[in-house]
Amino acid sequence: MVRAGEAIPLCPEQLAGLPTPRPPAEQQEDGSIKDIHGKDISTQFNHGALEALKIVQLSAASHVYLKSKSPMCGVDKIYDGHFTGKLIAGDGIFTALLKKLKIKITVID
What we know:
- By secondary structure, the chain is an alpha+beta fold.
- Helices cover 27% and strands 20% of the residues.
- The chain is built from three helices and six strands.
- It has a two-stranded antiparallel ribbon. Strands 3-6 form a two-stranded parallel ribbon. A two-stranded antiparallel sheet has the order 4-5.
- A hairpin with a 7-residue loop joins β4 and β5.
């Protein structure tokens, strides 16, 4: 059981079965997620985001700390999908789900 104020470390990408470390991945203009080799890993990312969301909801979390810029957890800025290091306005998949539920988010670098 989770106590109030207790942190629950988790990684949506690991919940999706992706390796750590993994090849860089970025969200594409069409919303898909592809790694630097062109492999579409959208299904894994969507699965991991939904699994992480279940944990947030089951634990009644009111606050989440997310890594900046990633296609999963980026907040307000994500990489542009071309693996050039350029940032664009946008949210990662997990972040978008959390924002719909109005969960408080703090970005960590």
